[in-house]
């Protein structure tokens, strides 16, 4: 025989009810079945509410009438049950009180009504079915409200009943209720129908218990909290038991034990989705141990500190006895080997009582100062990773810390297959998602805030949106841009902006400070945060440290952060280290070329870099590559470069040499040199009188540059060309190096002399490579290569 149990929600709606009938029809054709039902929908709660109304002298009658008039109550003859309820309510309203015994009698009617309605529906459809009141065979103790079955007696009676029942008749048995030996009605505790079903399965030695719920089965985590939670196909009884301890009431030990005893498999199924295979729980070993996450949030942490109790025997026993006397059950327990204190979890509602009980028990020890503190920490949650082995716990743990979630305490069970973490309640959802993503290798979500949406920023956003799908497939990484800001306004979207972000920016962006972005990320539990600075702003750099302190990794194409004072440079690095965060800026020098990464690697591996020299600026590269070999005035070449968009809007930014100086400084600092920007020897190519005039006037006066450059060009030796180079030299093992940017002549056939277009070229001289430098060359400027470079930094961070 198979036992089918239907929960209250399965019977609540018309659709669900139809499904129940179909399922029963289907199963009844395959073999003998018996059914266990809960009360329909919210019946139990409603009956209890009416009871409260009656007790408190409120108008319980209206609510009771509404209950009686529910449409499904018209489907069967339940007059007897409604009369019982009516009398009980009336009595309670007269005496203005009730006890657990009365309450059980009231609540029990819900299940009786439910079984009658379902049995009637089945007989109406031509089945042989009978409503069976389980009070006739489930005999229990006197623990009203949460009774426990006397299994021997109940088994005997149940077997006798089923023996007498015609084989072809479907028994529709009430869940949740039983009776004492004296024949008084009891209930088996909320959700007790699961227990009833397990008992029935056990007593009748059923082949399987099929528990029809409103979910598809047991999940790797609550799908309401973790979007990509997955259904677990099979669980071992032991694993189910672990899950039960952490809130899966359907798997409560009380429910599982009767099944384990006779090795009866339990299948959790969905009434609303009869095709789903559900989750099977049995005595069969599952491969590789199943992992699942659960959260308990109605809990509090009690911390007990007693320095004077070091090594004294019996303290723990006193603690737990004091709690046991108040019937407070204790969850996660953590105690250091120093025995100076102990922390443990209780239900939130028990917290005060627990603290009081301990205060009382340890009153004397307070006087003697052996105990110094008993405190309650609320607003916490316990996350349990069931099936987690300590040997691989480092990964989820590291992912948590990387996301700035540091557990308040953690412990593992002695069997070593269950790790529990206590975290702040507000962090629980994020923590759950981080751990879940880590353990199940589910696409890691990277949440990105882009600041600056001009040429580089805008291109980057488009590139990310275009590649997101293929990156999700290839690398299992989900890129989510949740914020786009400029100096004034920001557009926020927790599920990520989409292709029409430019329009949205116009309609939906709002004035902001960086704190608003941080708060938004926190409120929406966003993990793996990256802030990208694509501005050219010195102002925005001030946000770097606050961002890092709030859990963001940083990426910038903006060079300013790395080239203002060395003090800031150092402070930022220290903050990054303290917060386990990264800062990538590959595009600061040579746009998308892998330059900084190469230098970092060489330096870290202990290779002595002795000199770095090269053409660092794409604009200056173009200008001098062209001017050196063409017979045109300098102003004409410059005008062309301006028109092609190779220069800054004011080309003096390039010709002043400051940009090259900045890049050089960034490389120098990469080698741990502590130079300041002011210490760079920069050759400014703008004659003094043209340095201070405004941009439009300057753009009108380009010819005035010609005499200066003509003279330089005339002085060139044969077979040489002009290049504007940056050079880092000196003893690079010291604190400071020599940084110079200058216009030089180089042989036409040298690497620098061969440079074409707007390419950049970097020569890295090292001790082991001697006179032959490592050369990195390629397009070193332009919005799209720069955006690609920034994208590369995103992927580098995402991989970590
Ligand atoms: N109807 C009872 C309750 O709601 C028992 C059950 O549903 O299992 O708790
Ligand atoms: Mg229920």
UniProtKB/TrEMBL annotation:
PANTHER family: HOMOSERINE DEHYDROGENASE (PTHR43070:SF5), PTHR43070. Keywords: Amino-acid biosynthesis, ATP-binding, Kinase, Lysine biosynthesis, Metal-binding, Methionine biosynthesis, Multifunctional enzyme, NAD, NADP, Nucleotide-binding, Oxidoreductase, Sodium, Threonine biosynthesis, Transferase. Bifunctional aspartate kinase and homoserine dehydrogenase that catalyzes the first and the third steps toward the synthesis of lysine, methionine and threonine from aspartate. SUPFAM superfamilies: ACT-like (SSF55021), Carbamate kinase-like (SSF53633), Glyceraldehyde-3-phosphate dehydrogenase-like, C-terminal domain (SSF55347), NAD(P)-binding Rossmann-fold domains (SSF51735). Pathway: Amino-acid biosynthesis; L-lysine biosynthesis via DAP pathway; (S)-tetrahydrodipicolinate from L-aspartate: step 1/4; Amino-acid biosynthesis; L-methionine biosynthesis via de novo pathway; L-homoserine from L-aspartate: step 1/3; Amino-acid biosynthesis; L-threonine biosynthesis; L-threonine from L-aspartate: step 3/5; Amino-acid biosynthesis; L-methionine biosynthesis via de novo pathway; L-homoserine from L-aspartate: step 3/3. GO terms for biological process: homoserine biosynthetic process; lysine biosynthetic process via diaminopimelate; methionine biosynthetic process; threonine biosynthetic process. This is Aspartate kinase. Residues 452-586 form the Aspartate/homoserine dehydrogenase NAD-binding domain. Homotetramer. Its cofactor is a metal cation.
């Amino acid at each position: 025989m198979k036992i089918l149990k239907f929960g209250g929600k399965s019977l609540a709606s018309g659709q669900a009810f139809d499904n129940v009938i179909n399922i029963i029809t289907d199963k009844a054709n395959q073999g003998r079945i018996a059914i266990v039902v809960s009360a329909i929908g919210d019946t139990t709660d409603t009956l209890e509410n009416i009871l409260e109304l009656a007790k408190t002298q409120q108008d319980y009658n209206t609510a009771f009438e509404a209950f009686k008039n529910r449409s499904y109550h018209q489907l069967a003859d339940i007059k007897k049950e409604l009369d019982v309820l009516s009398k009980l309510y009336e009595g309670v309203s007269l005496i203005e009180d009730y006890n657990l015994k009365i309450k059980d009698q009231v609540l029990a009617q819900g299940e009786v009504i439910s079984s009658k309605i379902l049995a009637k529906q089945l007989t109406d459809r031509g089945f042989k079915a009978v409503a069976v009141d389980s009070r006739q065979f489930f005999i229990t103790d006197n623990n009203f409200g949460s009774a426990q079955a006397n299994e021997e007696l109940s088994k005997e009676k149940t077997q006798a009943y089923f023996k007498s029942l015609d084989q072809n008749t479907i028994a529709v048995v009430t869940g949740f209720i039983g009776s004492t030996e004296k024949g008084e009605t009891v209930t088996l505790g909320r959700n007790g129908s699961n227990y009833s079903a397990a008992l029935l399965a056990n007593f009748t030695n059923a082949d399987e218990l099929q528990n029809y719920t409103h979910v598809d089965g047991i999940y790797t985590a609550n799908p309401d909290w973790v979007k990509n939670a997955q259904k677990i196909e099979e669980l071992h009884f032991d694993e189910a038991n672990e899950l039960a301890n952490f809130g899966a009431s359907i798997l409560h030990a009380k429910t599982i034990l009767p099944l384990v005893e006779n090795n009866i498999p339990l299948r959790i199924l969905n009434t609303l989705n009869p095709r789903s295979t559900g989750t099977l729980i049995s005595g069969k070993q599952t491969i590789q141990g199943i992992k699942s996450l659960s959260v308990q949030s109605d809990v509090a942490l009690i911390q007990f500190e007693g320095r004077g109790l070091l090594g004294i025997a019996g303290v723990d026993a006193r603690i737990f006895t004091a709690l046991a006397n108040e019937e407070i059950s204790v969850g996660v327990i953590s105690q250091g080997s120093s025995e100076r204190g102990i922390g443990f979890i209780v239900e939130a509602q028990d917290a005060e009582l627990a603290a009081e009980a301990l205060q009382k028990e340890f009153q004397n020890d307070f006087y003697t100062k052996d105990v110094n503190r008993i405190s309650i920490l609320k607003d916490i949650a316990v996350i349990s990773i069931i099936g987690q082995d300590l040997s691989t716990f480092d990964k989820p743990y590291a992912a948590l810390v990387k996301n700035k979630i540091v557990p308040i305490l953690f412990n593992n069970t002695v069997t070593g297959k269950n790790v529990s973490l206590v975290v702040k309640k507000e962090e629980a959802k994020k923590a759950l998602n981080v751990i879940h993503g880590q353990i199940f290798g589910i696409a890691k979500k990277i949440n990105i805030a882009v600041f600056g949406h001009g040429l580089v920023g805008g291109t980057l956003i488009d590139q990310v949106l275009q590649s997101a799908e293929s990156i999700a497939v290839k690398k299992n990484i989900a890129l989510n841009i949740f914020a786009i800001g400029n100096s004034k306004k920001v557009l926020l979207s927790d599920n990520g902006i989409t292709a029409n972000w430019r329009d949205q920016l116009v309609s939906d962006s709002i004035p902001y400070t960086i704190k608003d972005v941080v708060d938004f990320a926190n409120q929406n539990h966003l993990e793996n945060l990256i802030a990208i600075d694509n501005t050219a702003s010195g102002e925005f750099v001030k946000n770097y440290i606050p961002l890092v302190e709030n859990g963001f990794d940083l990426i910038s194409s903006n060079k300013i952060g790395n080239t203002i004072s060395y003090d800031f440079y150092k402070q930022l690095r220290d903050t990054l280290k303290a917060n386990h965060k990264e800062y990538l800026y590959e595009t600061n020098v040579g746009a998308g070329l892998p330059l900084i990464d190469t230098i970092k690697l060489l330096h870290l591996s202990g290779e002595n870099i002795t000199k770095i020299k090269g053409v660092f600026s794409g604009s200056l590269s173009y200008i001098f590559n062209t001017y050196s070999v063409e017979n045109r005035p300098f102003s004409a070449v410059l005008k062309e470069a301006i028109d092609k968009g190779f220069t800054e809007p004011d080309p003096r930014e390039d010709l002043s040499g400051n940009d090259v100086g900045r890049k050089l400084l960034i490389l120098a600092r990469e080698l741990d040199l502590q130079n300041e920007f002011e210490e760079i020897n920069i050759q400014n190519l703008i004659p003094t009188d043209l340095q201070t005039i405004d941009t439009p006037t300057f753009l009108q006066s380009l010819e005035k540059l010609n005499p200066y450059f003509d003279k330089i060009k005339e002085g060139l030796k044969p077979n040489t060309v002009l290049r504007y180079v940056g050079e880092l030299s000196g003893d690079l093992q010291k604190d400071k190096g020599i940084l110079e940017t200058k216009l030089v002549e180089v042989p036409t056939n040298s690497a620098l002399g061969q440079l074409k277009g707007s390419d950049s070229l970097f020569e890295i001289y090292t001790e082991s490579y001697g006179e032959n430098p490592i050369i990195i060359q390629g397009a070193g400027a332009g919005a799209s290569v720069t955006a690609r470079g920034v994208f590369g930094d995103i992927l580098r961070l995402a991989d970590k």
